[in-house]
User: What shape does this take?
Amino acid sequence: MVNPTSSTPLLTRRAFLVNPSLLWKTGAIFASVGIIAGAFGAHGLRKRSGMTADKIHAWETASSYAVYNGLALLLVSLHPRFGTHRLAGPAIAVGGFVFSSSIMTLVLAGERWKFLGPVTPVGGMAMIAGYVSLIF
Assistant: This one.
């Protein structure tokens, strides 16, 4: 273990660099959770009382986007430049998490968590920013 001195910063710039390995693992988790959520939506969610066609469609959208963003993160992690891009991977990951999790929470919890409704587009905008940043 390194003993920090007064000249050694506790948080270096390297601590905040994007790591392709982290993007890969995050992508794998997103894709897995999306597939599991999709299966739950197809089999378990429909049996819950109060489920409407709109809620089931919203759940399908959230689980599909989790899979799409997971696959995108897997691909981004393999790219020599974008695997360490400061915005692309993190924006896709955070945006995808906020987008999908807020929709799933709204479907499951309903009125108790309706304040999350305006949060969903924020996640969508973060995802879009991540994908647009791949252009530059």
